[in-house]
Amino acid sequence: MNQHRPKLWTKDFIIVSSVNFFLTLIFYLLMVTIAVFAVDYYTATTSQAGLVTGIFIIGTLIGRLYIGRAIDNIGRKKTLFIGLIFFTLTTLLYFLNIGIAFLLITRFIHGIALGVASTATGTIAAQIIPAARKGEGIGYFSMSTTLATAVGPFIGLLMMQKVSFQMIFAFCLVIGIIALFTSFFLYVPAIETSDVNKQGFQISSFIEPKAVPIAFITLAIAFGYSGVLSFINFYAIEVDLVKAASFFFLIYSAAVLVSRPFTGRLMDIKGANYVIYPAFIFFAAGMFVLSTANRSFTLLLAGALIGLGFGNMQSCTQAVAVKLTPAHRMGLATSTFFIFLDAGLGFGPYLLGFIIPITGYGRLYGLMAVFVLLSAVLYYFLHGKKESMQKRVLDTSASA
Question: Is residue 201 predicted with pLDDT exceeding 70?
């Protein structure tokens, strides 16, 4: 039976996953170091340092909005080249210490470049993964992002203790060049683009309508997870678990890596609901455990549960967005997914920052556990119910 399964781990799949890993590694490495750089080199205020970090995500959103529409007119591989060249050249600007305003511009442009390049990698990956293994393949592809979210901050924090910021930027530049060089060996099959050239301003030219319902779910869960990304270190200081917190994202990534081979295949065989509903429960449980953390074990258990929950939901919702969309609009579907994901991760900390003075960190995570469960109800109405009905129809026709 396995002999008839289409091959997933092709040369091109490995290359595009590797390029995505390199891009995300640089993104997360700079996310944990650039605010300190702004304070040390430009005596930036706390709000300015936060803006230096956050303006990158605004740039990424703008890059995705544009390229989601244009990618199939430009060409998917050509878009990747443009994005990688743009991304690598922008890294050189970090070496110019002209002022805080120039650093903000650099971060904004760098974000646009990432939006272009990472939308291209996601679209190419979705295209070259066999249809019968779409859930499994996107699960493995998104593992490149998951690994980078753990490795990037780890390298960044380590380098800040050992080397200068100029060396950190040089490291990012080398990684960018490696990503660009690797992409030259990537083959992307041509596709039909018969009705992607519509004229005039239309929302559907920037957003894929069929992907919007599942993208809203992605926005909701990313909003919940943003509280973990942004405030886990502050919470760890408050509960005196700083050492354990340094391993939080490693445990998170390990949980994703262990579970991803099973959840991807389960989604392809049984459907998204069989993965996403349990993932909501794991995610909510992880948030609740985090809210009560008073020992290292509890904190790390929360990391594992959140990895099983959010880590798997992220790849499954991306797979759903792609499966619902015609091949020639796959770029828009990928762009739509990431726009909503970035919006949740980017604006979540800002909004949650108004709640924390009232609730504190622990109670915030307790509230986020409830929010995640409510998001499961939203998922049922936006996609889960429809998927269940389609699955029953398929099962009935298969047994007839």
Answer: no
